[in-house]
């Protein structure tokens, strides 16, 4: 379509294609009808917004996470593809019946865990993020709780989290994510991650497992901290690119 060619001159062609499919309400342009005048105008506005730096998922109001369509937008952290690997590691654990997703944000992790058959609680402090989580979890059995992840109480077989851990402000779409979901605090970005490891130790029963995403630079320090907090085993798991991105600690 001419509209796609117009968009591809301003943004990457795969994004132009995604935006046009979104505007037309189809999963593939192969089955799309010719755009109406209103759709053409909406598409041009969407491409303009993207070319000005607005996140693709804020424009469409949705994203995909492990095959699940999620509602997202300003005020909630947009799930990244690497976090899907965290869920894969969670599925590899055995003897797990209950889990809590701390700092659930959009509810992406909690949704996947619940759909696998686990009894799941999800905790989020931000009122804006909670609205998205409610939308994404309304058709699951997840118990959604508004609260501080570092003060939450309970007993679980597994704690899973993608907490704030970014060290400093960086360029790119990440700037559109809420700061409270990004920055871990301190010079190393590890104030919050350390707090979460401590809280996980209190939440987990015997042989309980913590799986937590972190920055590459934080891997060794978090393993050492997990041991000092009382975990009997701690190691680093890698993402698909082989980078050390996840802490696995066992009580």
From TrEMBL:
Keywords: Methyltransferase, S-adenosyl-L-methionine, Transferase. The keyword Transferase applies. Its EC number is 2.1.1.297. It is an enzyme of class 2 (transferase). Pfam families: MTS (PF05175), PrmC_N (PF17827). GO terms for molecular function: nucleic acid binding; peptide chain release factor N(5)-glutamine methyltransferase activity. Residues 83-170 form the Methyltransferase small domain. Residues 12-61 form the Release factor glutamine methyltransferase N-terminal domain. NCBIfam families: hemK_fam. PANTHER family: HEMK METHYLTRANSFERASE, MTRF1L RELEASE FACTOR GLUTAMINE METHYLTRANSFERASE. This is peptide chain release factor N(5)-glutamine methyltransferase.
């Amino acid at each position: 379509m001419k509209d796609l060619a117009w968009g591809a001159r301003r943004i990457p062609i795969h994004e132009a294609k995604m935006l046009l499919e979104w505007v037309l309400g189809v999963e593939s342009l192969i089955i799309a009808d010719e755009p109406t005048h209103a759709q053409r105008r909406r598409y041009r506005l969407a491409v303009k917004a993207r070319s000005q730096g607005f996140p693709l998922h804020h424009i469409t109001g949705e994203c995909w996470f492990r095959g699940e369509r999620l509602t997202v937008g300003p005020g909630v952290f947009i799930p990244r593809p690497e976090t899907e690997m965290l869920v894969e590691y969670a599925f590899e654990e055995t003897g797990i019946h209950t889990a809590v997703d701390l700092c659930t944000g959009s509810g992406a992790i909690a949704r996947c865990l619940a759909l696998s058959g686990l009894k799941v609680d999800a905790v989020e402090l931000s009122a804006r993020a909670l609205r998205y989580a409610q939308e994404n979890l309304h058709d699951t059995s997840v118990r959604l709780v508004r609260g501080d992840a570092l003060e939450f109480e309970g007993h679980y077989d597994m704690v899973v989290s993608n907490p704030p851990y970014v060290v400093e402000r960086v360029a790119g779409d990440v700037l559109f994510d809420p700061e409270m979901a990004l920055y871990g605090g301190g010079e190393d970005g590890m104030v919050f991650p350390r707090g979460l490891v401590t809280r996980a130790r209190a939440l987990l029963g015997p042989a309980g497992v913590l799986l937590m995403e972190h920055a590459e630079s934080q891997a060794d320090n978090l393993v050492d901290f997990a041991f000092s907090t009382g975990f009997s085993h701690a190691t680093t798991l890698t993402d698909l690119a082989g980078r050390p991105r996840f802490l696995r600690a066992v009580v």
